[in-house]
Amino acid sequence: MMFAVLALIAGVVLGVVFEPSVPLALQPYLPIAVVAALDAVFGGIRARLDGIFDDKQFVISFVSNVLVAALIVYLGDQLGVGSQLSTGVVVVLGVRIFGNVAAIRRRLFRA
Amino acid sequence: MTGNVGGGTTGGGSPERPRRVYAPDFVTELFRNPLDPGYAEAAARRKARGGESAATRAGGFSARTIVLVAAGFLLAIAYHQTVAAHPQAVQTRNNLVNDVKARQAETDELQKQADDLRDRVSRLRETALAGTDLADLRAQEARVGVARVRGNAAVIRLTDAPTQVDPVTGQASTNLGKVQDRDLQAVCNQLWHDGAEAIAINGQRLTSTSTIRTAGETILVDFRPILSPYEVDAIGPGDLDKRFSGSATGQLFRELVTDYHMQLSVSHRNNVTLPAAADPQLHYATAVSSPSPSRPPSSPASPVPSSSKGR
User: What stretch of H or E contains B150?
Assistant: First the structure.
């Protein structure tokens, strides 16, 4: 757990140090990708607290979450409903994040 | 592993119920069990297989680390992107605001310079010209509006009606009581008609070539924007304010006040100084150097013609 937090922090530090500029074409996908990544991370934390964490499951859920979210936004853009689909993705992932955080909270604080 | 999690409000009665055929409610399912069932399945598989080899564990560990680093990286980029994009817009706006302010200061400076130079010119003229010529020139200047004048004035003050907001929709209705350029034109024309000799609107002196126009929502006097409340100062006969109030235009504005809530006040003020207008630049017209001026200089009470009031 400690090491995971350290890895996350290392990623943040890398991002801050290198300050990569995102290509214009990828910019619409960034917010959705972040929400998808957060969903995978919170899912992993909860699984860890439940004692059923699995590396493969975590990696695959992270990658597929980000890719599927980007794909949905891309499809939406092509169909002309990009913002609506983005909203849909954010709502679904947001609900999942809330549910996972609620479970984490219950496990940690018994409340 | 599925029954003990979720939003809490959906109730825990479902596990006891016999399985129905109809499709599960997607949203309820989402709230009740946000975790991928994959984790539980993987745990069950692992339990069945009984432990993992050290190599698998090491591979999983490094993959997990890479993904976490990537997640942190993504967060940092997204934060950077949002924060970096924000100041750009603000910066552009600030630059524009600074530009406008700098230009305003520049025009103010130039205006001051012009005023100073005009003062100098008139002082030099005073020293160069003899007594009667000078008085003549002063009178002429005052009449056309390029010299400051003083006198008792009628002050007509027009203010936009307050914007009416629809209590239901909260939207502003079109304000019919807003002062328009033609209102100011009507006031000025009426004042000229009633014997005004010098008029200034919000400190902008009118000359024979002055214009009163609208650009967008703003009224321009000689291409300078002026804002409500509009104050028209007119030097003229002592009863100019009463003449204005009694005129057809005064009547029209009283109707605008009662019907559309425009605000109007007509008053008299003693000893008002009206500023000089900028020298009208003549580009096409040249003065005819005839020996006799078209108007005898000994008629200071005659009103200044109001032919071109910017219609």
Answer: strand B149-159
Q: Which CATH number fits domain B149-274: 2.40.10.120, 3.30.2130.30, 3.30.70.1880, 2.60.120.330?
A: 3.30.70.1880
Q: Would the CB atoms of B63 and A7 count as touching at under 8 Å?
A: no
Which residues of B lie inside 8 Å of A (Cβ-Cβ)? 1, 5-8, 30-31, 33-36, 38-40, 42-43, 46, 57, 59-61, 63-65, 67-81
| Element housing B288 (H / E) | none
On chain B, the residues whose CB falls within 8 A of the CB of A31 are 78
Burial of B173 (0-12, 13-18, 19+ CB in 10 A): exposed
A39-50: per-residue pLDDT in tens? Answer: 888 888 888 888
For residue A100, what is the nearest residue in chain B, using CA coordinates? Answer: B34
Other CB atoms within a 10 A radius of the CB of residue A87 amount to 12
If you search the block for the tokens 């960034």, which residue do you land on?
A30
Inside any domain, residue A65: yes
Question: Nearest CA of chain B to the CA of A78: how many Å?
Answer: 23
A33-78 pLDDT, tens per residue? Answer: 888 888 888 888 888 888 888 888 888 888 988 888 888 888 888 8
Q: Where exactly are the structural domains of chain B?
A: 149-274
Look at residue A30 and tell me if it is in a domain.
Answer: yes
Where does residue B212 fall: left (phi above 0), alpha (psi -120 to 50 degrees), or beta otherwise? beta
Whether residue B245 contacts residue B207, with contact meaning beta carbons closer than 8 Å, is answered with no
Core vs surface per residue B277-302: b (16+ CB within 10 A) or e: bbeeeeeeeeeeeeeeeeeeeeeeee
Choose among B7, B43, B76: nearest Cβ to A11: B76
User: Phi and psi (nearest 5°) for B15?
Assistant: -60, -35
Full-model pTM: 0.47
Q: Which domain holds residue A63?
A: 24-109
